[in-house]
């Protein structure tokens, strides 16, 4: 990937300085050494690509978190039916659901937590007078 001087400055100008650490790093690199037609950009590209910021989804082991997956219609239907029967499923029920739905037990647990919170938020709040 070749990064051109005008592309970086245009992007930084659009978002402003301090908007994103990588943009600031790119602007610093480009402003210090303008690219020449005959230069090899591979060394700079590697150093830019290897820079990490705190907002990236790498964990301490260097593994990238998988992208969040939404439950499909079939999974939602089964989860909602189970929620109607028991809003607090046991860990065994969560494990069975996870296996049946192709989800992790943790994602099933989170789904139930979110549903319980939504149910609480829908209830009218008693006002203290």
TrEMBL record:
InterPro entries on file: HD (IPR001356), Homeobox_CS (IPR017970), Homeobox_DNA-bind_prot (IPR051000), Homeodomain-like_sf (IPR009057)
Any matching Pfam family: Homeodomain
Entry annotated with the keyword Transport: no
Domain Homeobox: 62-122
Xref: SMART domains: HOX (SM00389)
Gene3D superfamilies in alphabetical order: Homeodomain-like
Stretches for region Disordered: 31-75
GO cellular component, one term: nucleus
PANTHER family in the record: HEMATOPOIETICALLY-EXPRESSED HOMEOBOX PROTEIN HHEX, HOMEOBOX PROTEIN HHEX
UniProt protein name: Homeobox domain-containing protein
């Amino acid at each position: 990937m070749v990064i051109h001087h005008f592309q970086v400055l245009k992007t930084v100008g659009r978002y402003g300085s301090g908007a994103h650490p990588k943009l600031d790093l790119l602007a610093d690199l480009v402003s210090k050494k303008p690219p020449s037609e005959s230069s090899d950009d591979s060394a700079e590209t590697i150093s830019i690509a290897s820079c990490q910021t705190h907002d990236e989804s790498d964990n301490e082991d260097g593994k990238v978190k998988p992208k969040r997956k939404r439950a499909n219609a079939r999974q939602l239907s089964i989860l909602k039916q189970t929620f109607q029967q028991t809003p607090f499923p046991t860990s065994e029920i969560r494990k069975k659901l996870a296996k049946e739905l192709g989800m992790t037990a943790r994602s099933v647990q989170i789904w139930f937590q979110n549903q319980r919170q939504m149910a609480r938020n829908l209830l009218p709040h008693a006002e203290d007078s």
